[in-house]
Amino acid sequence: xxxxxxxxxxxxxxxxxxxxxxxxxxxxxxxxxxxxxxxxxxxxxxxxxxxxxxxxxxxxxxxxxxxxxxxxxxxxxxxxxxxxxxxxxxxxxxxxxxxxxxxxxxxxxxxxxxxxxxxxxxxxxxxxxxxxxxxxxxxxxxxxxxxxxxxxxxxxxxxxxxxxxxxxxxxxxxxxxxxxxxxxxxxxxxxxxxxxxxxxxxxx
Amino acid sequence: xxxxxxxxxxxxxxxxxxxxxxxxxxxxxxxxxxxxxxxxxxxxxxxxxxxxxxxxxxxxxxxxxxxxxxxxxxxxxxxxxxxxxxxxxxxxxxxxxxxxxxxxxxxxxxxxxxxxxxxxxxxxxxxxxxxxxxxxxxxxxxxxxxxxxxxxxxxxxxxxxxxxxxxxxxxxxxxxxxxxxxxxxxxxxxxxxxxxxxxxxxxx
Lengths: 204, 204
What we know:
Chain A is an alpha/beta fold.
């Protein structure tokens, strides 16, 4: 059968929801799915590999990418740009790889508009109380930081309704299985099957 | 957590696609999902149990159900009515059971309109040639019957685009897994999770 185009997967969740753990467990078992690599103007740190952890770009290069509309979304944090390079994502999708964008809510909403053919997944926590226990459990933060994170998390959780799917991370194994089911099901949507289906109709 | 409402699943496919086998294998493993029971005016045959195989109704009773809008869809074949009783389906859904309607395309299109909150799955064959081999493989049909069935199947396959999902039945085990993934993923849609999610937001 013809190589199917990969799926663009938007993946968000508040700090403390454990989405990083879920993703790395999920990706360890898949050869058909990659995590998107962001472009950034921040300086590489020891161990950072260009094209693996980030695409490191100068401010001029990044602004040229913005002007040329080469970013699916971008934002500026603490004086550095971060963004998702459209040509890189498109190359992966065309090669049949699913691409996961692990991305905060504002960027996610932007990509949902720009790329209507996406799958969007929000990772939630079993309860607000559990989120607070997880954030406090790290034991490294001051009260003010925790309260600020809790407020931000509540705000982020309220945006879950913008996403197609909600995966509650009450158990990492279960959350990984849920993610697998979503990707399997989405690959069976008629719109994504139709190229193959045209072949079905014509094959003896 | 609050008992979640069940999902209404519309399940169609041409004669010879093997959807009956896939369904019975799938249902054998699930206690949360039932096959809908149709109402009919045809006479019970030996072994038929009212309320299990069909709800057996007189013509007058059936026509009263039509007039009272108590059928999600109905049709007449060889002088007998067949239809899907809305109150029965609603009772199952309210009790948290998923309900599968194994239904032909015309009825399916009707239910899609009447019940917007549905999951629709079309079962296809790996190729038209394979369908023909399966139909001929039964070895019991005359050429004319086979040709008529092939023509009907091609027409039915062309309606696959009206369904959300396409499950190619190239292998029964795989088709059952695909069906499981679809139901799992659909249960994670934000709209179906939101009742539980409201509790998440309020739970300490």
